[in-house]
Specification:
The protein has three helices and two strands, in the order αααββ. The chain is mainly alpha-helical and 95 residues long. It has a domain of 38 residues. The chain has a two-stranded antiparallel sheet with strand order 1-2. The longest helix has 19 residues. It is flat. GO terms for molecular function: asparaginyl-tRNA synthase (glutamine-hydrolyzing) activity; ATP binding; glutaminyl-tRNA synthase (glutamine-hydrolyzing) activity; transferase activity. Keywords: ATP-binding, Ligase, Nucleotide-binding, Protein biosynthesis, Transferase. Its EC number is 6.3.5.-. Pfam families: GatC.
Length: 95
């Protein structure tokens, strides 16, 4: 796949990046270089390779998944501009 200048301009527009017309050839070239690297990665055989979270073997810290209310309702609501009955109060937006 190759990126031309019109496609590079479209990508820049979608990304909300202002790119001058004279910079489009360089941007298209950079996109093509990136796509070339991705194609190289797709050629690598990863069959049987375990996913890893780090380059050094280590065990991640784990905790038991317990649902609780956080026991901090008063502290959280102390920062609210308007709180009523234990909840944040917000202006009504739908009539």
């Amino acid at each position: 796949m190759s990126i031309d200048q019109s496609t590079a301009a479209k990508v820049a527009k979608l990304a909300r990046i202002k790119v001058e017309d004279d910079a489009l050839p360089a941007l298209a070239s950079e996109f093509n270089t990136i796509l070339g690297f991705i194609e190289q990665l797709n050629e690598v055989d990863v069959e049987g390779v375990e996913p890893m979270t780090s380059v050094t073997p280590q065990r991640l810290k784990r905790r038991e998944d317990v649902v609780n209310d956080g026991s901090q309702q008063d502290k959280v609501l102390a920062n609210a501009p308007d709180a009523r009955e234990g909840f944040f109060a917000v202006p009504k937006v739908v009539e």
